[in-house]
Amino acid sequence: MVRIATFNVSMEEENYPIEQELEKGSSVLQYHLSTGRNQQMRNIAEILQRTRPDIVLLNEFDFIEDRSKGVDAFQQNYLSIAQHESVSPINYPHIFLAPTNTGAPSPYDFDQDGVASGVGGDAWGFGKYPGQYGMVLLSRFPINKEEARTLQLFKWSDMPGALQPKHPETNQPWFSQEQWQALRLSSKSHWDVPVMVGEKRIHVLAQHPTPPVFDGPENRNGLRNHDELRLTADYLSEETSTYIYDDKGNRGGLSGDRFVILGDLNASIYSDATYPGAMERLLNHPKVNSDFIPTSRAGAAVVPELPYAKEFTAAWKSRADYVLPSKSGFNVIDGAVFWPEKNSPLYRLVESREASSDHRLVWLELEMVD
């Protein structure tokens, strides 16, 4: 058995107060990671200690290249310390970390406000500083880093039939030809990370597409979200992945049949903000097992009249976070959304965004089969 989870932890710089003057070269996030005292981080660690995933993707964990000040500090000062008398520490000896497009400065005025600022809407992916809203993969099992693939640099225009945004008034392209030829598709990055469970390999397909909102009538974020999801769907099959290349220049898609798609996908079949067909392409893919939907009773209580509210993974009333295994190589045994009800003593872990996150951890228990 292997338990695999995804969790948008909202661990980005702007979430945290400054408690004292920082050392030169440090950040507010790094300070709180170093102390072991931040209650939000303690709660996030406790959620992980209670659910105990073997493999977990943390979305919105700012990219800090110096691991000793970032993910290693989170392990040492939070995960390795029991956060409640009823839980045990949890250790992830294997970590995959790589840069993202968020906040990485571009020379272009992508948002067309008249200023090429290099940040925010003018970065390769929206972010106010490099690495904001990054991601990190934690694993109890070995990671084959040599064969891991990242698609951070793949150009949106290199996708055949890409949904190029247009000015609604003129029907002309939103981006100039130079911008369109340069713009990267992934708002963060797309990863294919092989994790070895004994002799069996799991391809962890990690991502965090842009929210399909925060733009204008041109819907550039909605179209980008659609095509980021399409990139994952196309990656799964030989016949649809011929156009794809990774950051090392290697072409083609998945080199195996056992995979799990992980991440805050910012898309739902029930959301009007999601471009039509974006999630259906993944959920209905012939290689994806989407039959088991993780749920929670607390989510169901958010909007009791909606039968699908039990599927919510975010406080803002949506199923946004997914663990989607391949049909081949797994039997789905169990799964859930970690969302304690209001009458539970564990509700303190999710009662607000400040308590932990506005997202909930989602997990599946998978039996590996030949």
Automatic annotation (TrEMBL):
InterPro entries: Endo/exonu/phosph_ase_sf, Endo/exonuclease/phosphatase
MF terms (GO), sorted A to Z: endonuclease activity
Highest taxon listed in the record's lineage: Bacteria
Alphabetically ordered keywords of this record: Endonuclease, Hydrolase, Nuclease
Full protein name: Endonuclease
The keyword Heme is assigned to this record: no
The keyword Hydrolase appears for this protein: yes
Protein species of origin: Marinibactrum halimedae
Cited Pfam families: Exo_endo_phos (PF03372)
Endonuclease/exonuclease/phosphatase domain segment(s): 5-359
